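Sorry to interrupt, but I need a hand with the structure work. Can you supply me with one protein entry, sequence and fold together? No commentary is needed, just the two lines. Leave the record below and I will have a look.
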Amino acid sequence: MHHPESYELVFQASAVEDDAVIVRRTAREGAGGYPIYEDETGIVRAEISDDGEVRMLASGGHQVLGSPLVRTVGKP
Protein backbone atom coordinates (compact mmCIF):
# COMPACT_ATOMS: atom_id res chain seq x y z
CA MET A 1 0.00 0.00 0.00
CA HIS A 2 1.30 3.44 -0.93
CA HIS A 3 0.82 6.24 1.58
CA PRO A 4 1.29 9.96 0.90
CA GLU A 5 4.53 11.51 2.15
CA SER A 6 2.71 14.33 3.89
CA TYR A 7 -0.65 15.73 4.89
CA GLU A 8 -1.93 19.09 6.01
CA LEU A 9 -3.96 18.88 9.20
CA VAL A 10 -6.37 21.78 9.66
CA PHE A 11 -7.64 22.44 13.18
CA GLN A 12 -10.76 24.57 13.00
CA ALA A 13 -11.43 27.23 15.62
CA SER A 14 -14.56 29.34 15.90
CA ALA A 15 -13.06 32.48 17.45
CA VAL A 16 -9.77 32.67 15.53
CA GLU A 17 -8.26 31.59 12.21
CA ASP A 18 -7.89 27.89 11.51
CA ASP A 19 -4.53 26.41 12.44
CA ALA A 20 -2.82 24.32 9.73
CA VAL A 21 0.12 21.97 10.33
CA ILE A 22 2.06 19.90 7.78
CA VAL A 23 2.87 16.38 9.00
CA ARG A 24 5.23 13.96 7.28
CA ARG A 25 5.21 10.16 7.26
CA THR A 26 7.54 8.43 9.69
CA ALA A 27 8.83 4.85 9.61
CA ARG A 28 6.52 3.95 12.52
CA GLU A 29 3.01 2.48 12.43
CA GLY A 30 0.19 3.09 14.87
CA ALA A 31 -2.02 0.59 16.69
CA GLY A 32 -4.31 0.40 13.63
CA GLY A 33 -1.40 -0.59 11.37
CA TYR A 34 -1.33 2.73 9.50
CA PRO A 35 1.62 5.12 9.22
CA ILE A 36 2.28 7.68 11.91
CA TYR A 37 2.81 11.22 10.65
CA GLU A 38 4.36 14.06 12.65
CA ASP A 39 5.29 17.70 12.22
CA GLU A 40 8.93 18.83 12.23
CA THR A 41 8.84 19.49 15.99
CA GLY A 42 7.47 16.02 16.81
CA ILE A 43 4.70 17.59 18.89
CA VAL A 44 1.82 17.03 16.45
CA ARG A 45 1.48 13.31 15.71
CA ALA A 46 -1.29 11.37 14.02
CA GLU A 47 -2.04 7.94 12.62
CA ILE A 48 -3.80 8.39 9.27
CA SER A 49 -5.70 5.53 7.62
CA ASP A 50 -6.03 4.76 3.91
CA ASP A 51 -9.48 6.39 4.05
CA GLY A 52 -8.11 9.63 5.54
CA GLU A 53 -9.34 8.94 9.06
CA VAL A 54 -7.13 10.68 11.60
CA ARG A 55 -6.31 9.45 15.09
CA MET A 56 -4.32 12.08 16.97
CA LEU A 57 -1.54 10.75 19.21
CA ALA A 58 -0.44 12.53 22.38
CA SER A 59 3.25 13.44 22.42
CA GLY A 60 3.23 14.79 25.97
CA GLY A 61 1.08 15.45 28.99
CA HIS A 62 -1.81 17.92 29.17
CA GLN A 63 -2.49 17.93 25.42
CA VAL A 64 -6.05 18.55 24.25
CA LEU A 65 -6.30 16.67 20.97
CA GLY A 66 -8.84 17.98 18.48
CA SER A 67 -10.14 16.30 15.34
CA PRO A 68 -8.59 18.02 12.32
CA LEU A 69 -9.56 18.02 8.67
CA VAL A 70 -6.94 16.23 6.58
CA ARG A 71 -5.64 17.16 3.12
CA THR A 72 -3.07 15.27 1.09
CA VAL A 73 -0.09 17.42 0.13
CA GLY A 74 2.44 14.75 -0.90
CA LYS A 75 2.59 12.20 -3.66
CA PRO A 76 1.54 8.61 -2.82
Q: What stands out?
A: Strands lie at 6-11, 19-29, 35-38, 45-48, 54-57, 69-72. The first strand starts at residue 6 and ends at 11.
